[in-house]
């Protein structure tokens, strides 16, 4: 079956990485608005979805009309496929991606994520089954093996099995987040397959992105750099589209502009959480802390935000009450951000 490709890889698209507790529908929408060409949901547990867990559905939904990918995490071709067929029918994502890289102990214990890489015959078998059973293009997100040749062989097997593209977090599962991402290994994968290869790992600045582009990969996926900073996509694109050279030192006006923009983004985020009734699912306090990253007075703002309402008090509340409590908290957080913004203007 020929499946429509939804990304123009000639434009070197920038993708938001799937991130649990981060890439909820409101955050994805904001990233689309700020220039992300494609976004992924948080990983959705196949068993959770099949058991009717409403949280799984809430994670997978999308409220704008932009193409996006749903990521599934599961232990076997059968359970992943059953969940994928259901999610395809209910939510119609542009892509269904399989998590073959998560190294967290809980996920490995459930024989999911990077566990799937232990037997090289399993990942292509999963992709083959999904390709046969879905109308939606299927992609895989993998990590590296220690030996690059082995990763190249895996990538080829995924291509043969019908993967529309692969995203590679350029570290081994055992590395977690330590060490530097090995882009060279991803470049070798790219040289050996004909499907698009998305490079992921350690792209934080326009300079990083420029270097990443030199690998010849087709798209570039940003994870941690976008947490609390959805404007990174706009910033990267601006930097790429002109002779713009980011100076090593920011002047006062640049700091102020960054701060102002971050407050606007946070307010927009809160508006989207409210609009789509997502406050009950999002720990607004941690998200707010992330939005202060790299700003002047960041440490003081974090301390002040931390001292606001305690999340532990929410334990006995229902969803509606939690949402109301977080809505109030979001207003208090905006006050804190604006107070410090005024300080830097003086
Ligand atoms: C908070 C957090 C949650 C993550 N959740 C997922 C996930 O659900 N699925 C997945 O494939 N990878 C997940 N990852 C890994 C990222 O998608 C990405 O591969 C990794 O952060 C490396 O990219 P970066 O250097 O741009 O952050 C997560 C990473 C972080 C920091």
TrEMBL record:
InterPro entries (alphabetical): Aldolase_TIM (IPR013785), DUS-like_FMN-bd (IPR035587), DUS_fam (IPR001269), tRNA_hU_synthase_CS (IPR018517)
GO molecular function terms noted in the UniProt entry: flavin adenine dinucleotide binding; tRNA dihydrouridine synthase activity
All residue ranges annotated as the DUS-like FMN-binding domain in the record: 15-318
Keywords: Flavoprotein, FMN, Oxidoreductase, tRNA processing
UniProt-listed SUPFAM superfamilies: FMN-linked oxidoreductases
Entry cofactors: FMN
Transmembrane portions of the chain: none
EC number: 1.3.1.-
Enzyme class per UniProt: oxidoreductase
Pfam families, per database record: Dus (PF01207)
Keyword tRNA processing: yes
PANTHER family: DUS-LIKE FMN-BINDING DOMAIN-CONTAINING PROTEIN (PTHR11082:SF25), TRNA-DIHYDROURIDINE SYNTHASE (PTHR11082)
Name of the protein in question: tRNA-dihydrouridine synthase B
């Amino acid at each position: 079956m020929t499946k429509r490709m939804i990304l123009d890889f000639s434009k070197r698209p920038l993708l938001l990485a799937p991130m649990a507790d981060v890439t909820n529908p409101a955050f994805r929408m904001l990233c689309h608005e700020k220039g992300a060409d494609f976004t992924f949901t948080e990983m959705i547990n196949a068993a959770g979805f099949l058991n009717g867990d409403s949280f799984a559905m809430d994670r997978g939904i999308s409220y704008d009309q932009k193409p996006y990918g749903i990521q599934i995490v599961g232990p076997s071709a059968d359970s992943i496929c059953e969940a994928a067929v259901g999610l395809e029918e209910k939510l119609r994502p542009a892509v269904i991606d399989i998590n073959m890289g998560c190294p967290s102990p809980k996920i490995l214990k459930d024989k999911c994520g990077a566990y799937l890489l232990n037997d090289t015959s399993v990942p292509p078998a999963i992709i083959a089954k999904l390709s046969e059973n879905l109308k939606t293009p299927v992609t895989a997100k993998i990590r590296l093996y220690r030996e690059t040749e082995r990763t190249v062989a895996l990538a080829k097997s995924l291509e043969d099995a019908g993967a529309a593209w692969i995203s590679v977090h350029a570290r081994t599962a055992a590395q977690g987040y330590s060490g530097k991402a090995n882009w060279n290994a991803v470049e070798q994968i790219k040289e050996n397959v004909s499907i698009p290869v998305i490079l992921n790992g350690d792209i934080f600045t326009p300079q990083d992105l420029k270097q990443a582009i030199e690998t010849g990969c087709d798209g570039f996926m940003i994870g941690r750099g976008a947490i609390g900073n959805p404007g990174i996509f706009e910033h990267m694109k601006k930097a790429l589209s002109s002779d713009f050279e980011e100076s090593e030192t920011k002047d006062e006006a640049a700091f102020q502009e960054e701060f102002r923009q971050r407050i606007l983004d946070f307010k927009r985020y809160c508006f989207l959480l409210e609009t789509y009734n997502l406050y009950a699912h999002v720990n607004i306090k941690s998200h707010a802390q992330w939005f202060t990253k790299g700003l002047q007075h960041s440490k003081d703002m974090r301390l002040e935000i931390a001292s606001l309402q305690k999340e532990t008090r929410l334990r006995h509340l229902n969803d509606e009450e939690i949402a109301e409590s977080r809505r109030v908290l979001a207003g208090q957080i905006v006050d804190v951000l604006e107070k410090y913004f005024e300080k830097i203007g003086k």
